[in-house]
């Protein structure tokens, strides 16, 4: 290994193979991230990018990639000279993912690039292809690590329930061992999410307060202004609970709630995350009614633009009861968190686009100041995950004047003065794959445990025929107010 000027590892030379190399994920995220990684020296100059593409010539694929860089990542400045250098690292393998010939051609291509050295196989395709790709790689002799490492990267969803998640794990683990499988969750690659761990474990003032004695409740949220866009087929089968809470938000919850690991290694961190999941109180039909919220957006106004109801979206059934807003009140039954509600919620067509972790501390035990003084608000520590990640601390301070009236003082700290300093989540995570760091990736037991937790909720919601509606562009969700009514300051609506 060598290091860059930023003191980061430059990965060993690797063949970066992308299945679905003409797809949206590749164009918007993977290729732009690789360009930036090459520019910053994180990808070795001897590495190559091999795209597996169907029904296109290499010339057409090259043009597609170049056009997408101009559209989605103009900041990389891909002029003729830079494009010539970058494209010289690219090679296309044509073929259908269901054909054995495709994997034979891939093996031949890798051989022509100097032998079957290190390889990362990125599955930028729907999950139903993961098993077929793994089998195709095995049958072509591309799984063996005799000549270099082999790492398989898959995107969520990792199954649609416990049964399918378990089946997928069995299928992949029949070809690759667990350490070769990287289940990518781009949320965990965000600079601000990773900073949660640093704030917790690198600041001694946090640890004494990080427990049931001082924290009233925690809310972890993703609020979106967008609707389902072009994803009706997926979303009708998924809903907000599967799409965001079971995956992204529960992963963030484990980082917030975990105990300090014995060392900062992948297995040590994952072991602590698993302890949190095992401690989550299980649901039954009665607690599902009391501790969950499901709602769906009706028509309304978002960002001064009239938007249609969910049931009017193309591809959505007019009588659909699929939730576009979901909230779950979790309890973690262990020594640190007993009795502290963790409220995870997410919704589409809401007034703000923002993701946060909000830690609400307990109120002062009594008002020490003049009887006419305002009652101090409960302190809050807010980790803003996106946009413009940072930390907000809400404290109470005296108002200027002769009284002891207080007002809330808000202290804000951005993660970076310059947004260009913050690496894209896919840059972080692909670099971790290339260097063999699995810390920010989900292990198979984590995936199955999280599904086992939400399975009773899915079962209870399965046969519903109606659902609460909320006007797009508003916070008008009555059930959410009820869910958080006994929490200090109630439902935290991002500002």
Chart the SSEs and their pairings.
Elements: E1 2-3, E2 9-10, E3 15-19, H1 24-39, E4 48-53, H2 58-72, H3 80-87, E5 90-94, H4 100-112, E6 119-123, H5 130-139, E7 150-155, H6 162-173, E8 181-184, H7 191-201, E9 215-223, H8 232-257, H9 266-279, H10 285-291, E10 292-298, E11 300-302, E12 305-307, E13 325-331, E14 341-347, E15 354-361, E16 380-386, E17 390-398, E18 406-414, H11 425-435, H12 444-461, E19 468-471, H13 478-483
Parallel strand pairs: 3-4, 3-6, 4-5, 6-7, 7-8, 9-14, 10-19
Antiparallel strand pairs: 1-2, 9-15, 10-13, 11-12, 13-14, 15-16, 16-17, 17-18
Please outline what is shown here.
This protein is an alpha/beta fold. 34% of the residues lie in helices and 22% in strands.
Q: What Rg do the Cα atoms give?
A: 24 Å
* Rough outline: globular
Helix count?
A: 13
N/C terminus separation:
45 Å
Q: Tell me the number of strands.
A: 19
Give the overall average pLDDT.
90
Give the class from helix and strand content and strand pairing. Answer: alpha/beta
The CATH class of the largest domain, by name, is Alpha Beta
The CATH superfamily of the largest domain appears as Dihydrodipicolinate Reductase, domain 2
- Biggest sheet overview: 9 strands, mixed
- State the helical fraction: 25-40%
Strand content: 15-25%
- What is the third-level CATH name, the topology of the largest domain? Dihydrodipicolinate Reductase, domain 2
Strands of the largest sheet, in order across it?
18-17-16-15-9-14-13-10-19
Low-confidence stretches: 1-6
Which CATH architecture of the largest domain? 2-Layer Sandwich
Count of discrete structural domains: 2
